[in-house]
Amino acid sequence: MGLWKRASGALKDRTSLWQANLTRRTALRNPDIEKAVIRATRHRESAFDRRNADRVCEWVRLSDFNLKPVLWSVSNRMEKTQNWVIALKALYLMHAVMNSRAPCVKKIGRLPFDLSNFEDGHLPPSKAWPYNALIRAYYAFLDQKSTAVFQHAEDEREGFVMMNEVVLLQKLQNLVDLLMQIKPASRAVFVPLVRNVMDVIIIDIYDIYSRICRGIAIVIVNIYSAGKAEATMALNLVQKATQQGEDLINYFEFCHEIGVVNASEFPVFDRVPEEGIQELEQIIKRFDSDKLMIMDIEEKDHEEKAIVAVEKKKKKNDSGLKTVITDNWERFDEDFATKSIIQEPPDLIDLS
Q1: Alpha-carbon gap, residue 333 to 315, rounded angstroms
Q2: 322 SS3 class
Q3: Among 25, 59, 54, which residue's Cα sits nearest to residue 39?
Q4: CA neighbor of 206 nearest in space, from 254, 259, 263
């Protein structure tokens, strides 16, 4: 049965290569790229064809115009298969393309195919479930990573903005969570193809978590010039990074136990000291106290402005006098006061 399966897979690969030779070169299709993709995703379970995977990456680095033919070839390959080997190899190929550092990779966005509900159609469910779960988890990570890279490229045009940096770090932490969901189980643990995938996963964890640590350091340095929202989000980042460091230690121990080569040496996960977390909490409390102080000052200013308004109103009423020309003499209070003083008898003076 195994021999027949391998022979059938080899025949399908040859048929696909023959059809690719007959393809006309267009903006979406390139026969050379299609053949490289087919060879990189053959039905053989032994190992990846790194040579053809590198060729695909070179095509992408060579010109931005080669990205669409690569995406079309991989998508076409995925749509025609229910084989976990081809699906896993295609995801590995897309992972290599995304890590090729070609500028055009930032334009991919979401992956052009969907494996969130992948099910192998050639194995019984009792044997297929570990491969199905692995492919679904691997796809979820790559899809989110490609989306995050695309969105970050858009935000980079604005330069360094504290809120953008904090949001990016949150997305990177979510990627680390998705990476730790990629855990082979049952029979899949002993498959060399799966272990090769896990080696790449470990490398991505190193890279992404290192980027998170650098980003948190930048945010903390600039937190004094930020607002309360950024400070609160930064505190959440630090707390989650502390928890993720402990989870990653357990994940690396698991990978080491199943024989993943890149997990043989445990990385040193730097933890943010408790003093740093307490300082962030104090900064947030300071924002609250400053807000209350500003509210008190505004309230006092409002009261002073109300008093000034009343005084101005009084002055306005007092200054509302008018000059009237008349033939009648007007008698003022001073005249009455003078007259009364004159009419009063003089005080008696004692001369003795």
Answers
A1: 22
A2: coil
A3: 54
A4: 263
Are the C-beta atoms of 211 and 203 separated by less than 8 Å? no
Each as own residue / partner, the long-range contacts of residues 70-74 (CB below 8 Å, 24 or more positions apart, any chain) are 70/33, 70/37, 70/97, 71/108, 71/112, 72/28, 72/29, 72/112, 73/29, 73/30, 73/33, 73/34, 73/37, 73/38, 74/37, 74/41, 74/112, 74/113
Tell me the CA distances in angstroms from 182 to 177, 194, 205, 240, one per residue in order: 9, 10, 11, 19
* CA dist., res. 85 & res. 120, Å (int): 9
Count Cβ atoms within 10 A of the Cβ of residue 238 and give its class: 0-12 exposed, 13-18 middle, 19 or more buried.
middle
Q: How far apart are CA 202 and CA 261, in angstroms?
A: 9
Sign of CA dihedral 99, 105, 109, 113: negative
Nearest by Cα to 215 from 185, 279, 171, 184: 171
Q: Which residue has the tokens 């932490």?
A: 173
Which residues of the chain form beta strands (DSSP E)? none
Q: Please tell me the distance from the alpha carbon of residue 67 to that of residue 61, in angstroms, as a whole number.
A: 9
CA–CA separation, 91 vs 113, rounded Å?
10
Tens digit of each residue's pLDDT (9 = 90 or more) over 14-59: 888 898 888 888 989 999 999 999 999 988 877 788 899 999 999 9
* pLDDT at site 130: 94
Question: In this predicted structure, what is the pLDDT of residue 348?
Answer: 38
Q: What is the Cα 140 distance to its own chain's centre? A: 15
For the chain, the 3-state helix, strand and coil shares in percent, each to the nearest 5, are: 75, 0, 25
For 242-280, what is each residue's pLDDT tens digit? Answer: 889 889 989 999 998 888 888 777 666 666 666 667 777
Give Cα separations from 84 to 45, 87, 118, 192, 343 (angstroms). Answer: 10, 5, 9, 14, 126
| Total-model pTM | 0.78
Residue 8 corresponds to which tokens in the numbers above?
């059938």
How many residues are listed for the chain in this entry?
Answer: 352
Contact between 131 and 88 under an 8 Å Cβ cutoff? The reply is yes
Nearest to 173 by CA among 219, 220, 228, 211: 211
